[in-house]
Amino acid sequence: MLTGSIVALVTPMDKTGEIDFKSLEALVEFHIKSGTSAIVAVGTTGESATLNVDDHVKVALKTVEYAAGRIPVIAGNGANSTSEAITFSKLFANSGIAAGLNVTPYYNKPTQEGLYQHFKAIAESSDLPQILYNVPGRTAVDMLPETVARLAEIKNIIGIKEATGDLNRLTEIKALVADDFLLFSGDDETGCEFMLQGGDGVISVTNNVAPAEMAKMCRLALDGNRDEAQIINQQLMPVHKNLFVESNPIPVKWACAELGLIPTAGCRLPLTILAPKFHNIVREALTEAKLFS
Questions:
Q1: Is Nucleotide-binding included in the keywords of this UniProt record (predicted)?
Q2: Which of 20, 72, 119, 154 could bridge 98 with an S-S bond, Cβ 3.0-4.6 Å?
Q3: Annotated catalytic, 133?
């Protein structure tokens, strides 16, 4: 079952933006050894918006290959074009990918009915389980709990990553869906409380740099051990906050490179490497969270 600490994995690149598959394999091993529950490949943090279709599919399938059945792999398969998202969904079916992570269509700002029809069409295009992904801060569209409830009735729509950071959304959605519908936080700052209030896990950016700590915190939170979970969460709070000083995944890729997890912080345009004025802010957050060995 997909629960607990799930990493929204970066896609390692060299300084020219070419994908570094050797480093990707090393990151998969790092997360398996650190106790991460599952990997999201080519989500927002994996630069799905800057990868072409061939690279997008290759990164997802290589992640499955490197995982070799030892950890579930979820693949970003959303798009602002329904037909493109359907293409990804079909390509990922029967590939070993556990589920697709399906973001609300960005830029074109569909209605609630448009969102329902979009996700319904994707779900019906293949047998791949689908996790909805609501992140209005990036997409300019907010999928409301009533729409989520309608979609939850479709057989292979199995959960949602709710990234508003609004804990009321958890309560609202939970009241409208079946008990087995998975509820994931997409906001590191509120992820611990999200689980303590009945959520199933967190799809995390922080997990890239603190997987062992996130895994332990999530286990404690899911067990209802509030005090111990909050101690770890407070230790990580500087990282939760400061990995967003510029657009994700710019700061977290820089942090991964600073910790020696990847060789460079390379991104693809229009993303750029973290501005020097933020280096000390992110470095101090990593230090405060005791992540340097």
A1: no
A2: 72
A3: yes
Q: Is 290 a catalytic residue?
A: no
Extract the annotated binding site for pyruvate.
45, 203
**What pTM was computed for the model?**
0.96
pLDDT of residue 292: 85
Domain ranges in the chain are 4-229
Strand-pairing partners, residue 94, are none
Q: Which of the residues 161, 241, 277, 290 is marked catalytic?
A: 161
Known binding-site positions: 45, 203
Consecutive 10-residue averages of pLDDT for the chain (293 residues): 94 95 98 98 96 96 98 96 95 95 96 98 96 96 98 97 96 97 98 98 98 98 98 98 98 98 96 97 97 84
Whether 32 contacts 250, CB under 8 Å: no
Compute the C-alpha angle 135/15/49, nearest 5°: 25
Decide: 239 and 286 in contact? Cβ < 8 Å.
yes
